[in-house]
Design a protein that fits this description.
This protein is mainly α. Helix content is about 85%, strand content about 0%. It contains four helices and no strands. The longest helix has about 100 residues, at about 1-95. It is rod-shaped, with a radius of gyration of 51 Å. Mean pLDDT is about 85; it is low at about 160-165.
């Protein structure tokens, strides 16, 4: 009987150890379950955030596609305008007989000459009729040449003697 009692005591001790171990494992399991729940909550939050970011990316991709198309439209319109301006310049050149830039410079030169002449005329009025001989010499010295540059660069004979008209 002592053997049975000794064995029974061993079994009781083993049972107590197993109960302690079960309680420890249950505490660890409970802790791990709480961690899993917290992690699952974080995962759910991140899934929602990923969905929001994917929606934002899709919206921006659509916007980028729209702006790319709009940019192509604007480039086409700009190219059309540039071509139209080029053609208008060509038409003007053919009508005027010189490039638009040359005609523009010629008009600027004429405006400068007109301003200088107006200044000279105003100066002459201010001087009055005091010394007319001196003012005539000064006026001739100040007045710019009325010969245009194109006549100097491409001289033409005044008479038909050379055989060309």
């Amino acid at each position: 009987m002592e053997e049975v009692l000794a064995e029974n005591k061993k079994l009781v001790d083993r049972e107590k150890k197993l109960e302690k171990r079960v309680k420890t494992v249950e505490a660890e399991n409970s802790s791990l379950l709480k961690r899993v729940e917290a992690d699952q909550t974080d995962i759910d939050i991140l899934k929602v955030r990923i969905a929001e970011l994917e929606e934002e990316k899709a919206r921006r991709d659509d916007q980028n596609d729209y702006f790319k198309l709009k940019n192509k439209e604007l480039e086409a319109a700009n190219a059309k305008k540039e071509h139209k301006m080029y053609m208008m310049n060509k038409v003007l050149e053919s009508l005027v007989g010189m490039s638009v830039e040359q005609k523009f410079e010629e008009i600027q030169v004429e405006e400068v000459r007109a301003r200088r002449q107006a200044a000279i005329d105003a100066e002459m009025k201010n001087k009055g009729k005091g010394v007319e001989g001196v003012s005539e010499i000064t006026e001739r010295a100040i007045v710019p040449s009325t010969v245009s540059e194109s006549h100097v660069q491409n001289p033409r004979p005044n008479s038909a003697v050379s055989g060309r008209c």
